[in-house]
Amino acid sequence: MNSNKGFIKAVIVILIAIVILGFVFNISVIDIINNPKVRESVSWIWRILKIIWDFVRVPLSWVWDNFFVRVWNAVQDGLNQD
Fold first, then answer.
1. What string of DSSP letters covers 12-37?
2. What is the distance between the alpha carbons of residues 7 and 4, in angstroms, rounded to a whole number?
3. H or E stretch at 4
4. For residues 80, 67, 7 and 55, what is the CA-based torsion angle, rounded to 10 degrees?
5. Main-chain dihedrals φ then ψ at residue 35, nearest 5 degrees
6. Measured on CA atoms in the order 24, 26, 28, 32, is the torsion positive or negative?
């Protein structure tokens, strides 16, 4: 449960920031989200990110499994020996 604490806090801070920006600068977040140019840009960026992720997913998974997980397990084993 504690692992979600930081994520929830970040979401709350982002929501508060959006509300404050909306009031201070008189910006409608809904109008920005519904703007066709914004939607097109976000869609384009999302497609590019998906292509990049599909390209690097396998190598990054291998690095994660064979390096970071083993290092983390070794650290945990070292800490548990005390």
1. HHHHHHHHHHHHHHT--HHHHHH-HH
2. 5
3. none
4. -160
5. -65, 125
6. negative
**In terms of Cα–Cα distance, which of 12, 42, 35 is closest to 20?**
12
Are 54 and 60 contacting, i.e. CB atoms less than 8 angstroms apart?
no
Alpha-carbon distance of 58 to 5, in angstroms, equals: 30
- This prediction's pTM: 0.50
pLDDT band at 1 (very low <50, low <70, confident <90, very high): very low
Which residue type does 40 have? Answer: E
Whole-angstrom Cα distance, residue 7 to residue 44? 26
Residue type, 82: D
State the Cα–Cα distance between residues 73 and 56, nearest whole angstrom.
24
